[in-house]
Design brief:
single chain; mainly alpha
C-alpha cells in the first residue's frame, strides 16, 4: 500500500499541510455562510408568521434550503424547543377564526331556539319552561369550537451530512488534502524506519 502511494514523495508534506489548512478555513467560512442563510430564511418565516404574510412561501424556501445544504440544522442547542419551527401566530389566527365561526353559528342557533320554544310553549305559560326548552335546543343543535391539531403547524427539516454546494465541495477538498498529508507523514515515517535499518 505504501509503495502505491510513493508518488506522494514528490510532494512536500508542508505544502499538503498548507493546502489542508487553507481549504479548512474556506470550508469553515462556507459552512458559516450556509448557517447564516438558514437563519435569514428562518427569520423571514417567523416574520411572515407574525405579520400574516405569505407563510407557505417562506416555509417552502426554508425547507428547500435546509434539506439541500449542510450545516443548516434548525435546532439551537440541547435546551431548544422541539420541533424547532412552530407557527404559533398562524395557528392562533386559524383557531380564533374557527372560534368566531362557531360563536356566530351558535348565535343563530340561539335565535332559532327562541323561535322554536316560543312556538312550542305558548306565552300563557311561565317563562321558566321556555328557558329549559331553549337550553335543551342549544345543547342538541349548538356547535363547539373545533381544535386544530398543533402538529399541523410545527416543522423540522433534516439537514444533509454532505451537500454538493460550495461548502460541501470545500469540505471534501479539505478532507482529501488532509488524508494526503497524513499519508505523506506515514511515508516519511516508513522511509525513515526502514532506511535506518
Amino acid at each position: 500500500m505504501i509503495k502505491k502511494l510513493s508518488f506522494l514523495k514528490k510532494i512536500k508534506a508542508r505544502y499538503l499541510l498548507v493546502l489542508t489548512l487553507l481549504f479548512l478555513v474556506i470550508s469553515l467560512f462556507a459552512l458559516r455562510a450556509n448557517y447564516e442563510q438558514m437563519v435569514s430564511l428562518r427569520n423571514a418565516l417567523y416574520s411572515a408568521d407574525k405579520n400574516n404574510g405569505n407563510v407557505s412561501l417562506a416555509l417552502n424556501n426554508l425547507q428547500k434550503y435546509v434539506t439541500s445544504h449542510m450545516n443548516t440544522n434548525l435546532s439551537t442547542g440541547n435546551g431548544s424547543i422541539y420541533p424547532p419551527i412552530q407557527l404559533e401566530y398562524t395557528y392562533q389566527r386559524l383557531q380564533d377564526q374557527l372560534s368566531q365561526q362557531a360563536s356566530s353559528l351558535n348565535t343563530n342557533i340561539y335565535t332559532q331556539a327562541e323561535d322554536y320554544c316560543q312556538a312550542k310553549i305558548p306565552t300563557g305559560f311561565s317563562g321558566r319552561y321556555r328557558i329549559s326548552c331553549v337550553e335543551q335546543y342549544i345543547n342538541t343543535h349548538g356547535l363547539e369550537s373545533q381544535q386544530i391539531p398543533k402538529s399541523l403547524y410545527e416543522f423540522d427539516f433534516v439537514t444533509p451530512l454532505w451537500s454538493p454546494d460550495f461548502a460541501g465541495w470545500m469540505t471534501l477538498t479539505t478532507a482529501i488534502f488532509g488524508v494526503l498529508f497524513i499519508f505523506r507523514i506515514l511515508i516519511n515515517f516508513w522511509d525513515s524506519y526502514f532506511n535506518s535499518k
